[in-house]
């Protein structure tokens, strides 16, 4: 006879671990399985090592927000199969100085 609480129990493997996908700008995907309580720094370092890039040259984003190494999947409420974007870190850009420029508009 099975107890009523048995239905609510998840296999321990699913509750402790999470599968995450890290997708690079080139479309390359690397899959990781980590504990939900593990700091993401471990995943970030492993990704950079596999891709032969420096950690300081990559920005990791989840839902459009930059990740910090001390954050955990639990803290960010990540779900199994979630995707992290790995973007080459860009310093500067996005500024255009139009002072003194003549602008012509044809109607």
From TrEMBL:
Its main location: cytoplasm. One of its GO terms (cellular component) is cytoplasm. InterPro entries: Rad60/SUMO-like_dom, Ubiquitin-like_dom, Ubiquitin-like_domsf. Pfam families: Rad60-SLD (PF11976). Transmembrane segments: none annotated. Keywords: Cytoplasm, Isopeptide bond, Nucleus, Ubl conjugation pathway. Residues 16-93 form the Ubiquitin-like domain. SUPFAM superfamilies: Ubiquitin-like (SSF54236). The keyword Cytoplasm applies. Belongs to the ubiquitin family. SUMO subfamily. This is Small ubiquitin-related modifier. It comes from Trapa incisa.
